[in-house]
Design brief:
Low-confidence stretches: 207-229
Number of helices: 6
Order of helices and strands: HEEEEHHHEHH
Number of strands: 5
Strand content: 5-15%
Structural class: alpha+beta
Distance between the termini: 70 Å
Strand order of the largest sheet: 4-3-2-1-5
Length: 250
């Protein structure tokens, strides 16, 4: 029995988990509801910096103030960049094109990765019954993995550098453990799902079916050969008898 269905099922669970984690990260800062209002990438002491609140949290959608451990986001904007100088309208803090581009591209890549992850989820259903479904699901999942890895790498580069920059000017800053955990866990899930779908397609090769058909051909070949020999024998024996009888008469 091929292990493909079992591998496909585990892959579906992993892909579904990755999609859920990406959605949770995206919803942080966009919806003011528990638990998504606890999700953020970076929290920093921004007291006295232009228009900033005393404590600011960055999400995909806004730079939010923090109150009682919850995000308070006055307005949301897609692909909100992490660039304190631009965010707060002051030159008293770091910022620049590097942070801006890293976080803007991060938003685009996470959406592309999410799209392919959802496609892989549906194709993974075909993997339960088909080798082609396994290979198609693996290919689609690998694309999702590529963009999700880019997203997680850009996130790490931008916000870890931002945390260090805040600390360099004696301001407290911490990374958001939920968002970082979700994003890298999604990478791990997609990697394992891609691997399992690929292995499922390879191990589900038509070895068994091919050998059966080969054996069938051999079986029928022997049967046909036996039948023809039998038929030949049935014609040859009477001929030989008639010839022998004729020789006896002579």
């Amino acid at each position: 029995m091929t292990p493909r269905p079992a591998l496909a099922f585990v892959s579906l669970v992993l892909i579904a988990g990755a999609v859920l984690l990406i959605f949770l990260t995206l919803l942080g800062g966009a919806i003011d509801k528990n638990p998504t209002n606890q999700f953020y990438f970076l929290e920093a002491d921004t007291k006295g910096l232009g228009s900033a609140a005393p404590l600011t949290r960055w999400t995909f959608w806004s730079s939010c103030s923090a109150m009682d451990g919850r995000n308070t986001c006055p307005g949301v904007k897609a692909a909100y960049p992490f660039d304190p100088r631009r965010n707060f309208g002051t030159d008293d803090i770091f910022g620049g094109t590097k942070y801006y581009l890293e976080t803007r591209f991060m938003f685009a890549f996470v959406l592309i990765g999410l799209f392919f992850a959802v496609c892989a989820l549906f194709l993974g259903i075909l993997a339960l019954v088909s080798r082609i479904g396994s290979f198609l699901g693996s290919a689609t999942c690998s694309v999702a993995l590529f963009f999700q890895t880019l997203t997680a790498a850009l996130m790490t580069a931008a916000y870890v550098q931002g945390r260090d920059a805040f600390r360099a000017v004696n301001r407290n800053a911490t990374l958001g453990r939920y968002n970082f955990g979700f994003m890298w866990a999604a990478v791990a899930c997609l990697f394992l799902a891609t691997l399992m779908l690929c292995v499922g397609g390879v191990t589900g090769k038509k070895d068994k079916g091919y050998s059966s058909r080969t054996g069938g051909r051999k079986f029928f070949g022997r049967k046909k050969s036996t039948k023809s020999n039998r038929d030949r024998g049935s014609f040859i024996d009477p001929e030989r008898q008639r010839r022998m009888e004729k020789e006896d008469d002579d």
